Amino acid sequence: MQLNRSTLTGAVVSLAVAVSTTAFSATSAVAETKKIKIDGSSTVFPISEAVAEDFQKQTSGKVNITVGISGTGGGFKKFCAGETDISDASRPIKEKEQKLCEGVEYIEIPVAFDALTVVVNPKNPVQSMTVGELKKMWSENPEGSVSTWKDVNSSWPSEKISFYAPGSDSGTFDYFNGTIAKKNHRKDITASEDDNILVQGVSRDPNAIAYFGYAYYEANKERLKAVAIDNGSGPVLPSRDAVESGTYTPLSRPIFIYVNKNAAKRPEVRQFVNFYLRKAAEYSAEVGYIPLPPAAYQQAAQNFREGKTGSFFAGRKTDGLKVSEILKSK
Fold it and tell me: For the whole model, what pTM was predicted?
């Protein structure tokens, strides 16, 4: 066929329309995939990850959710800079973080209770520790008088202790540092924001000790031994019953998500948070944490629905708080 000018022009126009249509279709497909960014606490991570995976299935992949682990403090830095939509936190937001978040309104949502767990290698003969022994062991000591187990308790082994702990950006570090080490945490530790690294360290070293969220102990209890904590009324092992009764003190604590109020205007974020609150009890228990009372989730859902911003828990004493008392702190 002979191509004249008219035929060639028509072909070019048709091709341009076809390319344009294809590009529009590709753009539309990309636009259909919404994104939600979560970062923060490694303690809360197992819950948020489980809820995110379920939500993505429910939405047939139309919402892509990323869940990072940079520690509670690291998460708040990103959250306050507007880089994330939701921040996982294993402690309430600090005053300095509230100042950092000026201009970013947020909704605080407690999602579960954690029994912060002290663990040793299964070969270690130590079964329990007093809060005083924990303080002596984990506090900075200029004289270096605590380096072996025997330095803490004369009946314990004479081997040198290997310390594993969350990094300073971790809310778990902050909580333990304030509650046990009295803001004088020793620095000669192997630190990581990833609790799985701490699990590996203790499981491989007979003289290692670490602390982290209960879910990580539950998932690795064949490789680790939980230490019972004696706060004056006898040794108590971490458990759901001990947390609910308020006998596991001072290492029980509420854990949270913080939601950017502006991000919550997006339908996918609002739907996800509502889904999170419906599933929080189920997945908290599944990964090894202690669900809140139903009334607490109902209150949290109402606060989210009404867009109540700010922190109810910042500056409040939360160690040893009973699950049944969660609403009384509001």
Answer: 0.84
